[in-house]
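Exercise 3.2. Students should predict the tertiary structure of the chain below and write it as structure tokens, then compare their answer with the key that follows.

Predict this chain's 3D structure.
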Amino acid sequence: MRLSEGLLNPMKKAVVVDDCCNMIESQLASKSGLGGIAIKTAFAALKGIKPGYIPEVVEALLPQCFDAIDPIWSEGVQKGDPVQHLVESRSRTADVLLSITDDIAKISKRQIVRSTYNKLRGSAKLHVEAAVPDFAKVIEKYTTS
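Answer key:
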């Protein structure tokens, strides 16, 4: 079973999206310094687009994200520890996930989304790599239950 099939079935989808949003908030809270201020400010701007915008985006992106990382996760299943494998492959995982957001940002009709994304894209890989362990734990939580 592919990750998107198991994680986005109607019985789990809402809680997976909610846990991913909570993970994002936790990642943001851990950021400090000028880079942390920049990313927190950008995220606040995106949240201000409309109520529920972030969960909508997460819900829309998750199927593509799960499909994209499924091969890496499957390698980890074969090795016996998919969470650890995803973490060890965090650079590859980040590249795969960012290729999705890069494509979406290019076609976004919202100028604030494009400009915010483009301003932060240079440091995005480091932030995504830092989030991979928590993302892997979310995936594990719903693939083992």
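Discussion points: The chain has a mean pLDDT of 92. Helices lie at 3-7, 13-29, 33-47, 53-79, 82-88, 90-107, 111-143.
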